[in-house]
Design a protein that fits this description.
4-stranded parallel sheet, L-asparaginase_C, 2 domains, Asparaginase/glutaminase-like, Asparaginase, alpha/beta, single chain, 8-stranded mixed sheet, Rossmann fold, Asparaginase_C, about 20% strand, about 350 residues
Length: about 350
C-alpha cells in the first residue's frame, strides 16, 4: 500500500469558530481520527506548515515553503496531499507545478467549501478522494481533486464560492474522476512520461538547495494584475510609471480574444511601460478560448505597443508563472519569451 504525506496548510476544511479560522494541527488530527478519515500511521503522516493560514493570506513565499516541505519528504512517500483553502488553491497548485520540475509522484491539492465539522460537509469526500488520487502512481503531476474531479493543477480555476463543484478546468479535460473511491483515469489527458534522468527524484537534493534561494525571489517579485473594464483608470498606470521601481510585469486580463480599449492614453501608458522594460502579457477574461490578438484592431493595437498574448493561460497559472520566472531573474522580453514555453502543461502555444 502507498505511503502518503498529508500537508496541512490551513483552509476551510479544518476551520472552526465564529468567524471561521484554521484550527491547530493537533486538534485537526484528532477530528480526522474521530471521523475515521485518517489512515493508519503506517500508511500516512500528517504534517503542517508552521502557521496554518486562511488561504486568502497565502503569499508567493508560502508557495516556496510548501514546495520545500514536499521536496524534503519526497524520498519517504509515494504520494502527497496538500490541504489548502479554496480561495487561492488554484494559484498554489499552479506554482507547485512550476516549482517541482520533473515531478514523478502524485501531488494532490484539495480542501472543502464547508468545514469538516459541518453536517453534510464536502470535506470527507474530498479528503478521501485526494488520498486515493495520491496513491495512483500513474498520475505524476500536480493536481486539484474536488467533488470527484481530478484537474491539472495549473489549469484549474475556482468557479463558485458556495457550490460543492467549486473548481473547473475549462481549457483542459479532467485527468480523472473518482467514483466511490475508485480513480478512473483519462489516459489521453495525462502528460507524456518523462525520461528517468529528468525525474524529480533524481534531482531532489539540488532542487531543494535552489528553492532556499528562490523563496527570496518569490517574495520580491512584482506582478500587477489589471482587469480591463469600461472606464479603466489610465491614471493608475501613469502613477505606476512614476514610481522609482514600477511593477516588473503587468498581466492584462482582457476582453475576448485579447482586446482592450482603443484609448490613446491607455495605449501610450502601455508603450511607456514596454519602453521601461516592463513585461506586458495579455490573457482572456473568458473561461473558454485563447488569446488571438491579431483578430481585431482592439487587440492588434495592444500588440503594436509591446503586449504579448498569453495563449490559453488561465489567470492563476499566468500570475504564478510570472512570479516564478521573475524570481529566477528573468525580466522584460526574456520573461515574456519564457512565459510562452510550457513547463507543466499549463498552456498550448
Amino acid at each position: 500500500m502507498s505511503r502518503i504525506l498529508i500537508l496541512y496548510t490551513g483552509g476551510t476544511i479544518a476551520s472552526a469558530g465564529q468567524p471561521l479560522a484554521p484550527m491547530p494541527v493537533a486538534l485537526f488530527a484528532e477530528v480526522l481520527r474521530t471521523r475515521g478519515l485518517l489512515p493508519p500511521a503506517a500508511h500516512c503522516e500528517l504534517r503542517a506548515l508552521d502557521k496554518p493560514l486562511d488561504s486568502a493570506s497565502m503569499q508567493p513565499a508560502d508557495w516556496g515553503q510548501i514546495a520545500r516541505s514536499l521536496l524534503a519528504a519526497w524520498s519517504h512517500f509515494d504520494g502527497f496531499v496538500v490541504l489548502h483553502g479554496t480561495d487561492t488553491l488554484a494559484w498554489t497548485a499552479a506554482a507547485l507545478s512550476y516549482l517541482l520540475p520533473g515531478i514523478d509522484k502524485p501531488v494532490v491539492l484539495t480542501g472543502s467549501q464547508y468545514p469538516l465539522a459541518y453536517e453534510n460537509s464536502d470535506a470527507p469526500r474530498n479528503f478521501s478522494d485526494a488520498l486515493a488520487v495520491a496513491a495512483t502512481a500513474q498520475l505524476q503531476e500536480v493536481m486539484v481533486c474536488f467533488a470527484g474531479q481530478v484537474l491539472r493543477g495549473n489549469r484549474a480555476i475556482k468557479r463558485s464560492a458556495q457550490a460543492l463543484e467549486a473548481f473547473v478546468s475549462p481549457r483542459c479535460s479532467p485527468l480523472a474522476r473518482v467514483e466511490d473511491g475508485v480513480v478512473k483515469l483519462d489516459a489521453q489527458a495525462l502528460l507524456p512520461a518523462r525520461r528517468a534522468e529528468q525525474a524529480l527524484s533524481e534531482r531532489r537534493t539540488a532542487l531543494l538547495a535552489e528553492l532556499v534561494e528562490l523563496e527570496k525571489g518569490l517574495a520580491a517579485a512584482t506582478v500587477w494584475v489589471l482587469c480591463v473594464h469600461p472606464g479603466f483608470p489610465v491614471a493608475m498606470l501613469q502613477a505606476a510609471l512614476s514610481l522609482p521601481a514600477p511593477p516588473a510585469a503587468w498581466l492584462l486580463v482582457c476582453y475576448g480574444s485579447g482586446n482592450a480599449p482603443q484609448d490613446e492614453a491607455f495605449l501610450a501608458a502601455l508603450a511607456a511601460a514596454q519602453a521601461r522594460g516592463i513585461a506586458l502579457l495579455a490573457i482572456s477574461q473568458c473561461e473558454h478560448g485563447r488569446v488571438e490578438m491579431m483578430t481585431y484592431q482592439a487587440g492588434s493595437s495592444l500588440a503594436a505597443v509591446g503586449v504579448v498574448g498569453g495563449a490559453d493561460l488561465c489567470l492563476p497559472a499566468a500570475q504564478a508563472k510570472l512570479v516564478l520566472l521573475q524570481a529566477r531573474g528573468l525580466r522584460g522580453q526574456a520573461l515574456l519569451q519564457a512565459m510562452l514555453q510550457p513547463l507543466a502543461g499549463e498552456l498550448v502555444v
